[in-house]
Amino acid sequence: GVVLEGRALVKRFGSTVALAGVDQTVRQGEALAVMGPSGSGKSTLLHCLAGIMKPDAGEVHLLGARVDTMKERARSALRRTRFGFVFQFGQLLPELPAVENVALPLMLGGVPRGQAVGQARSWFAPLGLADMEDRRPGELSGGQAQRVAIARALVTSPAVVFADEPTGALDQNTGHEVMDLLVSAIKGNGSSLVVVTHDPQVARWCDRVVEVRDGQIIAGDHSRAGGVPR
Ligand code: ADP
Ligand code: ADP
């Protein structure tokens, strides 16, 4: 079924129309790629769907709950409990060991520290991060840091993970490894993924690709039967 739905989303910045009436649904368990040139409105769409930004018009629904009309406090709680985020880089707290970075979203949600760290730890080996638990982000490679970010995005078992150019700062091989791990972690968790990218390679990991141009979706619903091509 549909997990997340944006209806007729409009967002302006001054005279710039970043979103010109976008409809988009995200289904349970699907990986959706949002593609398009720089400045086309991809990040704005992600921010509206994720409750980071309020659209000027239109509606966002998460599992039947209206998101766009919620007060910032409620949207913030929703982001923390139902959504996970992976950005291009610079999202880990440099002074905290990797395992505490991953545990943080749980602790912010009230899970006791020991339990949160235990749950966080269980993500390291499956993501190829065995023995990296106590390293600080500055002691990790770019690909390792992104895998820690994936663990942090998934540790709360979110309904939807949003990723904005998650491989943008990585070389091609490392980027592909990160996409492999990201998509399989999402699928294993029963979460959905919305990934913003201008890299067609990254989109190949997704079930569906939509193309944004000038704040509108100009192509989409290319369902991919087989998943990851090899
Ligand atoms: P993309 O993610 O596809 O690069 P964005 O969604 O970031 O595109 O931006 C869409 C349009 O909105 C662009 O013209 C951009 O310059 C403009 N825009 C985005 N965010 C802001 C902002 N905070 N202030 C002013 N203009 C913005
Ligand atoms: P783009 O390359 O699409 O223009 P930016 O890097 O400008 O994307 O980021 C767009 C927005 O995404 C920022 O204004 C911010 O709200 C959010 N963002 C990007 N990186 C991070 C991050 N590391 N942590 C939190 N928010 C981020």
Automatic annotation (TrEMBL):
Provide the ABC transporter domain boundaries: 4-228
Q: Does the keyword Transport apply?
A: yes
**Transmembrane spans:** none
Gene Ontology, cellular component aspect: membrane protein complex; plasma membrane
User: Which InterPro entries is this protein grouped with?
Assistant: AAA+_ATPase, ABC_transporter-like_ATP-bd, ABC_transporter-like_CS, ABC_transpr_LolD-like, MacB-like_ATP-bd, P-loop_NTPase
Keywords from the UniProt entry: ATP-binding, Nucleotide-binding, Transport
Name the PROSITE patterns on file: ABC_TRANSPORTER_1 (PS00211), ABC_TRANSPORTER_2 (PS50893)
Organism domain of life: Bacteria
Residues of the signal peptide: none
Listed GO MF terms: ATP binding; ATP hydrolysis activity; transmembrane transporter activity
Q: Does Nucleotide-binding show up as a keyword for this record?
A: yes
Q: Can you name this protein?
A: Putative ABC transport system ATP-binding protein
Species classification: Bacteria, Bacillati, Actinomycetota, Actinomycetes, Streptosporangiales
